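_Backbone structure tokens_
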Amino acid sequence: MEYNMSFPRELNRVKEERIPTVICGGTVEYHGPHCSYGCDTLVAEGLIKKLAEKKEIMIAPTIYYSPSSYAVADETSGTVHIDEEVFESYLFGIFSNMLDAGLRNIYVVIHHQFEQESLMPMTLSYMKAAKRATMRYLERTQGRGWWGSENYASYYENLGGGDDPFSWIKVIPTMSTEVQNATGYDHAGEFECSILMALYPDAVKLERLGDIKHWFTESAAKANAELGNKMVEKSLEYLEKTIV
């Protein structure tokens, strides 16, 4: 089920049954001469589309342009970097509208600079925008002092659950630390090329590795679909368990 192809009847059921609404958070980023610019986004989208075959979710439109950073290559490389403050404001608007619409089970799934689930600028932008939008929504709809009111006497009992307002929007990686340790994780090397190859074979062209030498792409020559399928399987197991 896709948000942009749905109608009010479908959206109402998503809200009533708290069916997960999933947003893939992506980038347009240089990944060497052999990987497509959409690599990070395609990994997230490919996994979420496969997850939709296993359980009911609503897939919201992907957010492509983001704070990808120029850490890998400069502005002439084709990377599109959006300033973090601008991006966070944009996300704040999206999340605020989703909360106003009544969505209460939103997941943002990211595959970018999430080694060992470290909190880098893009991830932090999503997290900050989610908390800001939630706090502003609660103050606007319930008034200042909402948390201290008797309505929230069970706040600590509900932490992490569906009645915890700060769990309405969750930001998670495509691959948890556990999954990364079980398979491997890199940037445009053996592991990322393998999972991308398993999901979108046309997005990897290993024969172009020789176009330019990078230390981070040298291992890509070992990429293979068998490893990629294992990474997909492990990632899906984690996502199926986490997105509930």
Summary: The first strand starts at residue 21 and ends at 25.
